Amino acid sequence: MSPKREKPVIFTSDLHVDRWDRERRDSFFRFLDHVERTAAEFFIIGDILDFPAAKGQSVWPRHRDLITRLREMPAAGVPFTYIIGNHDISLRGIEIAEAGFTVTYCDAKNPVERDLLGKKVYMDHGHFHDPLFQDHIYDAMDFLRDVTGAAVDRKAVDFLKDVIRIFQRRPKHGADKDEIPAREEVGVPDRFLKIWEQAAEQLLKRMRYDIVMFGHTHAPAIVEMPGQGRKSQWYVNTGDWVAHTTFVELTAKKMALKDWAAGETLKEVAF
Question: Is residue 2 part of a domain?
Fold first, then answer.
């Protein structure tokens, strides 16, 4: 009799479901079927939704089936954790900790740390490390939406992000040879991605995690970093479901970054 296959822990992030067409939506539901069949536990690390909705429509009626499906995952035998991101930061203050179902907003004082399959894993959405991010900016966007009845122009906000990043912090240039090349339409321009790699490096050194995992940038990556002695540590970014369809599978023996739509493993590391 062959040994029972170990179930992986699966991670993804940055769904931004308001931006999906029908094909992408159907693809994600097939991905959830895969998660229910194969996963020991499932994490989404931020930005399922956009508040205000990208298309100016009510969130709940359009996405009730998706939210209900995620809510029912524990009943299918897969514990589910959602870490609130910056695009759905309006959900902060909602803390749910039921059997197999968790919704939480983490910050520097209250990070999400888990021991998973022998690895000490740190997770946050990643917006804390963005030089633009300030809570009051998102509060102001909500206020302007309420007053004007329309979403703040996203192109103007994206332009502001670039300006602030340029003047607040200058990342080192040059990509790591092991980094997964980013596709078009990532959430953060390529020239700024080193900011998150450097943030992960500091967390790995200071807290001695095995893995630091972010979303937010929309740029999938697994980057090995030197640890204490001969021990390796990793910075991981789960990518997104806008320009990519990426997710991470973690087992006791390996970690893999995969593309669901392409059916490909983009990178795999053995422990």
Answer: no
Neighbours of 69 (CB within 10 A): 16
Q: Is 226 a domain residue? A: yes
- Structural contact between residues 111 and 121, judged by C-beta atoms closer than 8 angstroms: no
| 204: containing domain | 9-270
Phi/psi of residue 138, nearest 5 degrees: -75, -35
* DSSP designation for 128: G
**Does residue 27 form part of some domain?**
yes
E strand intervals along the chain: 9-12, 41-44, 80-83, 96-98, 101-104, 112-116, 119-123, 211-214, 221-226, 232-237, 246-250, 254-259, 264-270
Q: What is the pTM of this model?
A: 0.81
CA-closest candidate to residue 19, choices 245, 191, 260, 263: 245
One pLDDT digit (tens) per residue for the chain, 271 residues? 444 578 999 999 999 998 899 999 999 999 999 999 999 999 999 999 887 666 666 677 788 899 999 999 999 999 999 999 988 887 888 889 999 999 999 877 788 999 999 999 999 999 988 887 765 555 565 565 566 655 554 544 554 554 454 444 444 444 444 444 333 344 688 888 999 999 999 999 888 899 999 999 999 999 998 766 667 899 999 999 999 999 999 999 999 999 999 999 999 999 9
Residue 133 lies in a domain: yes
Calculate the CA 204 to chain-centre distance. Answer: 18
Mapped onto helix, strand or coil, the DSSP state of residue 182 is coil
Does residue 252 contact residue 36 with C-beta atoms inside 8 Å?
no
Measured CA to CA, the distance from residue 233 to residue 4 in angstroms comes to 28
Number of domains in the chain: 1
Burial classification of residue 79, based on how many CB atoms lie within 10 Å of its CB (0-12 exposed, 13-18 middle, 19 or more buried): middle
CATH number at residue 41: 3.60.21.10
